[in-house]
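Below is a filled-in request sheet from our internal design queue. Each sheet records the structural input a requester submitted and the sequence that came back. We keep these sheets so that new team members can see what a complete request looks like end to end.

REQUESTER: design group, bay 2
PRIORITY: normal
MODE: inverse folding
CHAIN LENGTH: 334
BACKBONE (tokenized):
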């Protein structure tokens, strides 16, 4: 058994692997690197097999998205800690050392994420994860270093180690026994926000999630779905409602869902006003999918001590769009 297994999920990403896999292989020391391939039809698998024989290849039988892809692949990985790493992430030398140290010094830490910087603008945080994820009272996710589309410059303001609410799936370290104890990702999500749900379920069971700013990686982002892709809009709006249904006390969940449905309607009208009818329709489809799957999600509610203090601010929407707060350290005073 290796201490850390780095598992890169891939679907038709040969170009990304050519660009970013070399740094992972070179700078990951004794960690075992895996390629978990989601039934690619390009030359991804042959490229890795021919050029990086040290990388172990797991070939999934279908493209089950992020959630099923990792669930299937990680059944075949033997390690104390899984590192789930996007194929469009470049890593620097010694990126793993602060993570190893944190796991050793923080035995209560079950999940850890590093600092996520923008590969194309390394002085700034990247959208997917930035300096650790949080929720507002209505279940909207946001990050230190990134609130909606506002990305902060990295000036060392988040070089700390601190507990966060959720860690990004772009680069997430999780103890293997915790991942398996949670039965992995919820495959009904397919992709997007399944890591929020996983971390929420973990916290409901008493696990802790941390951010370690001494470790950094560089994420290209948008290589699967860009931030303004209607499919991503659909998945984000629907999956967020899934997480609220599953992870809050029943009365609280129903109240939050009612408010969110109203606010989603406002967002749909705003997209329509901006002549983005495809995003408006994506929200409508998200709601229809949520209604169809509500009973299934409700049955997934686990017998757990639902944590009541899951949020750090009441409304990130109000703070950002009305009060024009676009930096975490102004929004939340530690």
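RETURNED SEQUENCE:
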């Amino acid at each position: 058994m290796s201490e850390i297994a780095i598992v890169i999920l891939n679907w038709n990403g040969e170009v990304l692997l050519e660009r970013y896999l070399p740094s992972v292989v070179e700078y990951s020391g004794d960690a075992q690197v895996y390629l978990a391939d989601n039934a690619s039809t390009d030359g991804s698998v042959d490229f890795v097999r021919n050029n990086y024989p040290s990388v172990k290849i797991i070939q999934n039988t279908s493209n089950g998205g992020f959630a099923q892809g990792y669930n299937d692949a990680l059944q075949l990985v033997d390690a104390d800690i899984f590192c789930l790493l996007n194929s469009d992430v470049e890593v620097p030398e010694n990126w793993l050392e602060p993570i190893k140290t944190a796991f050793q010094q923080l035995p209560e830490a079950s999940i850890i994420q590093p600092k996520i910087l923008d590969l194309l603008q390394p002085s700034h945080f990247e959208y997917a994860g930035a300096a650790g994820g949080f929720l507002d009272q209505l279940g909207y996710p946001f990050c230190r270093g990134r609130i909606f589309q506002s990305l902060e410059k990295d000036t060392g303001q988040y070089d700390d180690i601190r507990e966060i609410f959720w860690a990004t799936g772009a680069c997430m370290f999780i103890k293997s026994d915790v991942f398996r104890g949670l039965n992995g990702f919820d495959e009904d999500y397919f992709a997007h926000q399944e890591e929020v749900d996983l971390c929420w379920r973990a916290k409901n069971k008493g696990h802790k999630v941390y951010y370690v700013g001494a470790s950094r990686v560089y994420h290209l982002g948008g290589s699967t779905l860009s931030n303004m892709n209607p499919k991503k809009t659909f998945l984000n709006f629907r999956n967020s409602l899934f997480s609220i249904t599953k992870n809050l006390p029943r009365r609280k969940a129903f109240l939050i869902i009612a408010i969110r449905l109203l606010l989603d309607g406002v967002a749909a009208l705003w997209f329509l006003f901006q002549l983005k009818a495809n995003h408006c329709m994506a929200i409508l489809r998200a709601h229809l999918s949520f209604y169809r799957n509500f009973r299934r999600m409700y049955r997934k509610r686990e017998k757990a001590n639902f944590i009541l203090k899951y949020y750090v601010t009441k409304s990130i929407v109000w703070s950002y769009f009305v009060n024009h707060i676009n930096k975490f350290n102004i929004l939340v005073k530690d």
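SHEET NOTES:
- Residues 230-331 form one domain.
- The first helix runs from residue 14 to 27.
FILED BY: M.R.
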